[in-house]
Design a protein that fits this description.
Helix content is 41%, strand content 16%. About 13% of the residues have low confidence. The longest helix is centred in the last third of the chain and has 26 residues. It has four domains: 79 residues, no CATH class; 273 residues, FAD/NAD(P)-binding domain, CATH 3.50.50; 103 residues, Alpha-Beta Complex (Flavocytochrome C3, Chain A, domain 1), CATH 3.90.700; 108 residues, Methane Monooxygenase Hydroxylase, Chain G, domain 1, CATH 1.20.58.100. The protein is of the alpha+beta class. The strands form six sheets. Strands 1, 2, 6, 7, 8, 9 and 19 form a seven-stranded mixed β-sheet that branches. Strands 18-10-20-21 form a four-stranded antiparallel β-sheet.
Length: 622
């Protein structure tokens, strides 16, 4: 073991190296660092302070070699007391999430004349699920009735959707889309569908660009690159959030009269997914820890028609291609016929059974392919999404010369935070909208309902959240609360750590989820996964490295991810049947008598409590 003095010198050297890189990334040159004294700059750096939770190291108080009295490193806690590095923001309404639901909610809240701030991990509207969506809204228009929309949504959800939420979706989606048209959105109307497809792969860009322009035009504040790790609560009411700005390593506290979660789902936790990399389910974890109930967390939707060519990322193929071509295994067997999948369009109406069929073949050692060789360009589907992929599939993947390997990818969380049609949760001052909210989709989501959902419930929740803010008093004196929550973060999720990088921890978790909480599940595997996740939470996460802002971000995400993984597994273990996109090999049949209802979960003490609520008979709206 090295002597204490040598260890201190090595530690000091590494800190100076890392801090120099950090300060340069902020545009502070080495010359300026030398001129003003690197130590003085470091003492103001929240990242530096987070890197040294122990202020008792005597060596930090020694003067710099050749310095002029500024000192190498001041005691970080003393420096923090003199100069608080945290950025503290105040607003009426805080929206967490910068995708479609978050932007629509912010616009609705702004209409009430309130100050609104959007905090997100990415720039507004970029790298979100809305941005990468297929730009299609399901709605009752062009000969597609509200009764039909309601019925199909409930059928796809296997009867366990919230009828109240589905009714709101069906009733209000047409008006919300017409509103976007009046703002300048251009698209194509078809029976039961409005499509505003952009260029691949960012097909949803026309929608996000329109909404982000509206947000900026209405002077709604935005704060990108912030990962929220905690909701602030005062006497049970949410009064804001704590986050970490990971570009510069700055802690951020936001105080608000009302807070709305719209930070999407968690499909990026799975190694094969078609979501943005930052879609890690943070909102579920934040809501759970604040005291919200969540529902239907066992239902993770997988898209069957996803490219799985070697060296290519998971890429969603246009659904009409499955009906136009043939889906075969290595032996040439017709997979759809083999498993009795007949409803068309198969990739949209049979996502669950189609995905399960592919995984069953893969478990047998077979590969599954989409064969388009007999199709030809003349017979290519006249569908905007399919047409946008023609050149790529023809030129890059030679789709007319050989079949294309396909395999499911994680796509959408059907469950989420339990909320009413106005986005109101169980926790005062906290609202939810978009994929983070559960109840609309039941056991499986109908294609096209995701974008309709973000408009309808973003609008409703944003307005309701603003009404709460208008009536609510501002936070009291939260300084002590902010300080205690930040210190708890520094000692825990933000601690330095000497173990593996947190990104590696997340990848290991993804492999566990894919194998045991993916398309095919069984009790033994899920129980083993639960044990491994418990070990990762108690051993791996505390030791995970957090030596730079990127690793702090990844550690925050890993912490949220482990919580969400536990939700998925516990819910899937409780539901002893197969329904929608939840398939258990050891309970392969749907059992309406015992299991037509919803699994709810909530925090009790430090544990996760689950319950099952059976549903009464459901009727379509009159």
């Amino acid at each position: 073991m090295r002597p204490d003095g040598e260890r201190v010198r090595l530690l000091r050297r590494r800190v100076l190296r890392d801090a120099g890189i950090l300060l340069q990334s902020r545009g502070i040159s080495r010359a300026v660092q030398r001129g003003f004294g690197l130590a003085a700059l470091l003492s103001c750096s929240p990242f530096f302070q987070a890197s040294f939770p122990d202020s008792r190291t005597a060596g930090r108080r020694k003067a710099a070699r050749g310095g002029t009295g500024s000192g190498l490193v001041r005691n970080p806690r003393t420096a923090a007391a003199r100069m608080n590095p945290m950025e503290i923001l105040k607003t009426d309404v805080l929206v967490i999430g910068g995708g479609g639901a978050g932007m629509r909610a912010a616009l609705a809240a702004r209409e009430k004349g309130l100050d609104v701030l959007i905090v997100s991990k990415t720039p507004l509207g970029k790298s979100t699920c809305t941005y990468l969506s297929a730009g299609a809204f399901a709605l009752a228009m062009e000969g597609f009735s509200k009764e039909t929309h309601f019925r199909l949504t409930m059928e796809d959800g296997k009867g366990i959707n919230s009828p109240e939420l589905v009714k709101a979706l069906v009733e209000e989606a047409p008006a919300r889309v017409r509103e976007l048209e009046s703002w300048g959105l251009r698209g194509e109307w078809r029976r039961g569908l409005f499509s505003c497809l952009g260029k691949a792969p960012s097909w949803g860009a026309p929608l996000t660009e329109l909404l982000s322009h509206a947000v900026r035009e209405r002077k709604i504040a935005e704060r990108p690159w912030v990962a929220v790790f905690d909701l602030l609560q005062e006497e049970g009411r949410v009064i804001g959030a704590l986050g970490f700005e990971f570009r510069q390593g700055v802690p951020v506290a936001v105080l608000s009269r009302a807070t709305l979660l719209a930070n999407g789902g968690g499909a990026a936790l799975y190694p094969r997914n078609d979501n943005p990399v930052r879609a890690t389910g943070d909102g579920y974890s934040l809501a759970f820890r604040a005291g919200c109930r969540l529902r239907d967390m066992e239902f993770i939707q997988f898209i069957p028609l996803t490219l799985a060519e070697p060296g290519s990322p998971a890429f969603l193929l246009a659904p009409p291609l499955a009906d136009a071509g043939k889906v075969v295994n290595s032996a040439g067997e017709d997979i759809l016929a083999k498993y009795g999948i007949v409803e068309k369009p198969v990739a949209a109406r049979c996502r669950d059974s189609f995905s399960q069929a592919i995984l069953k073949e893969e478990e047998r050692g077979e590969k599954v392919f989409l064969d388009l060789r007999s199709l030809g360009e003349k017979n290519w589907p006249a569908n905007n999404m399919a047409l946008s992929q023609l050149a790529m599939l023809r030129d890059r993947f030679s789709c007319f010369q050989r079949p294309l390997r396909i395999s499911p990818s994680a796509h959408f969380f059907s469950g989420g935070i339990s909320a009413d049609p106005d986005g109101r949760t169980d926790v005062p001052g906290l609202y939810a909208a978009g994929e983070v909210m559960g109840g609309v989709h039941g056991a499986n989501r109908m294609g096209g309902n995701a974008l309709s959902e973000i408009l309808v419930f973003g609008y409703r929740a944003g307005g309701s959240c603003a009404e709460w803010a208008l009536a609510a008093s501002g936070p009291g004196e939260p300084e002590a609360l902010i300080r205690s929550r930040w210190e708890a973060f520094r000692r825990g999720r933000g601690s330095h750590g000497k173990g593996d990088p947190p990104g590696l921890l997340r990848r290991r978790l993804g492999e566990i989820l894919w194998k045991h909480a993916g398309v095919l599940r069984e009790e033994k595997g899920m129980q083993g996964a639960m044990e491994e996740i418990a070990r990762m939470k108690s051993e791996d996460l505390p030791r995970a490295a957090a030596q730079n802002p990127k690793e702090v971000l990844e550690k925050i995400e890993a912490d949220h991810a482990l919580c969400v993984a536990e939700m998925i597994l516990r819910s899937a273990l409780l539901r002893r049947e197969s329904r929608g996109c939840h398939f258990r090999k050891d309970d392969p049949f749907t059992d309406d008598r015992k299991w037509k209802g919803n699994v709810f979960l909530e925090k009790k003490g430090e544990g996760m409590f689950l319950s099952f609520a059976p549903l009464p008979a459901q009727e379509p709206p009159g």
